[in-house]
Amino acid sequence: MKTAKVVLKVADDVSTDIIYPGRFMATVLPAETPLFAFADSPDFNRRLKSGEIAKGGAIVAGKNFGCGSSREQAVSCLKGYDLAIVARNISRIFLQSAINLGLNIVICPGIEASEGDELQIEGGKVLNRTTGKTFATDPLPKARQAIIDAGGLIPYTRKVLMGTRS
Amino acid sequence: MGMTYVQKLLAKAVGRPGAAVGEVLEPKVNLAMSHENGALVISQFEEIYKGTGREAKVWNPDNIAIIFDHRVPAESSKTATNQKKTREFVAKQGIKKFHDIRGDVGGICHQILPENGYVRPGYVLVGTDSHTTTHGALGAFAFGVGATEMASVWTLGRILNVEVPATIKVVVNGKLPKYVYAKDLVLHVIGRLSAQGANYKVLEFHGSTIRNMPTSGRLTLCNMSVEAGATSGLVPPDKETLRYLREEAGVKGKIETFGPDADAVYDQVLEIDATKLVPQIACPHTVDNVKPVTAVKGVKLNQIVIGSCTNGRLDDLAVAAKILKGRRVVDGTRMLVFPASWRIYHKAADLGYIQALSRAGAVVCNPGCGPCLGIHQGALGDNEVALATTNRNFKGRMGNPKAEVYLCSPAVAAASALTGVITDPREAKK
Q1: Whole-angstrom distance, CA of residue B249 vs CA of residue B269
Q2: How far apart are CA B227 and CA B116, in angstroms?
Q3: Full domain range(s) for residue B127
Q4: B337 and B227, same structural domain?
Q5: Residue A101: closest CA among chain B residues belongs to which residue?
Q6: Which residue is closest to B35 within chain A, CA to CA?
Q7: Which chain A residues are Cβ-neighbours of B195 within 8 angstroms?
Q8: Domain ends where: B231, B248, B272?
Q9: Do A75 and B146 touch (CB under 8 A)?
Q10: Most B CBs within 10 Å, among A12, A13, A145, to test the B interface
Q11: What is the value of pTM for the model shown?
């Protein structure tokens, strides 16, 4: 059972320019990118960096989360805080990169939650423990689940390379 | 049941008679492109080989292209160091399709690939850049991927987990009116579909307007298809494709072309009468917030930008130079021009466009991504407003979350440079 507190709620069409502004793109390494997560939302960025927001929280998003640029920093910066993304749907490149890097993503078309709510994510549904409402999630395609099960695309590719993919 | 263009392309790529929508394939990659983010691809690539006892060699250096464009020349020591690391990797791996910071062969990746003949119809082309959709203009299935995905491609030579996408057919007929261009058409399409209307699908362009459109315009259309969420924009190859590849890109040898089946099944069909289109503007802060220019006329502008992988081509500079020649960018508004490649820059210089623009008061910068994504030059001040021929107007895009960006065609940008406010080029003083 995994529970996560909603630490941020955002609307539809949140682009990777919002998640990781372009002017920090010279920083590429996953160990360094979390410093600039949501850098143009200074208060949220500060609370992440200071640890005021505990790791393992959830961002609740509308449709088309992660649209725009393919910059992978937008994924690695959130992964650094072990955030889960619970979105109505997710843009293609962001979704694939999240799977590749092992960022916890949940596609939940009907999700309703406010900042501060406690979400319980398990078994194909999301229970909002604060409101008592339950929401169904969309499963990931099987082929993508295999990458998650392998621990991300790097170990998965290593298996393919070495001929040990089952 | 017939197949769409992308279904046919993917079926050929995996050597099967068919490819059903939703089927997961692992096609071979014909071209894998990266820019400055190659530095991250390299570190992920090396990570894959850790503990395997194998030497980290890319699958085929001839199928990899690396083009520096996002921050050229380097704006910081950090970027310069990433570029240095990439340069060393390129030399070690024997990658020949490498375009360094140079005034002869340099430029923006989405112009360098077509103009050097690196793109062919039927290719599976991936790039660590969302605007990789551009190359569908030449009949390639071209799409953006993350850096780790690219590291996997460099290792295996194929891309894992490609779902055969559904196709939205966009049929455009009629002649585009004066001062209406491919950019206005694609903004109109994005406005109709919304920023997510084509998510996980491709756009396939048809109709007399497309058939009569030069490749430069088709590149603009496919470039911005991603702003409707499309995995790729595609123009099935025709005579114009072959003309461009032979005459402009210098491609020799056989070029294989094919089209979708007549009985292909489409997810949706969007029909557009080109003769009814007017200049379009995408308003802050989403690309699908599209209005006719008449609805936003008079918005005061601090900066005007012409250039980018969307609209920095010779045709675009020609339109701007024609409007601005012998005239003057109005005081209080600055104008920046970024040609898409040095080849274009030189041609524009030979034709007098660079001089016309510069004498009018525009600052003509070196080819590259420039201010489009706010990391190199041309950042906006607090509460400033920009009008740009680039492709995105997200909050913070041009380097400042307190600024606003409107998107338009080069004609609207040039006409507005004369007045300092958003101006309908159809009404500009002749």
Answers
A1: 32
A2: 26
A3: 5-272
A4: no
A5: B148
A6: A71
A7: 13, 64, 67
A8: B272
A9: yes
A10: A13
A11: 0.97
- State which of B230, B250, B272 marks the end of a domain: B272
Buried b (16+ CB within 10 A) or exposed e, B66-95: bbbbbbbebeeeebeebbeebbebbeebeb
Give tens-digit pLDDT for B297-330. 999 999 999 999 999 999 999 999 999 999 999 9
In whole angstroms, how far apart are CA A108 and each of A57, A62, B150? Answer: 16, 9, 28
The DSSP symbol for A24 reads G
- Chain segment B159-209, per-residue pLDDT in tens: 998 999 999 999 999 999 999 999 999 999 999 999 999 999 999 999 999
Q: Domain spanning A2-137: which superfamily?
A: Aconitase, domain 4 (3.20.19.10)
B200 burial type by CB count under 10 A (0-12 exposed, 13-18 middle, 19+ buried)? middle
Which pair of structure tokens corresponds to residue B241? 């494709």
Q: Is A26 on the interface with B (CB under 8 A)?
A: yes
Q: Which of A13, A23, A96 sits opposite B145 (nearest CB)?
A: A96
Is A143's pLDDT higher than 80?
no
**Which residues of chain A neighbour B130 with C-beta distances below 8 Å?**
68-70, 93
User: In this complex, is the C-beta atom of A162 within 8 Å of any C-beta atom belonging to chain B?
Assistant: yes
Of A28, A93, A147, the CB nearest to B144: A93
Do you find a cis peptide bond into B131, omega within 30 degrees of 0?
Answer: no
User: Under the phi-then-psi rule, with left for phi > 0, alpha for psi from -120 to 50, and beta for the rest, what region is A14?
Assistant: beta
Q: How far is A130 from chain B (nearest CA, A)?
A: 30
B234 in Cβ contact with B141 (< 8 Å): yes
Give the residue extent of every domain in chain A. 2-137
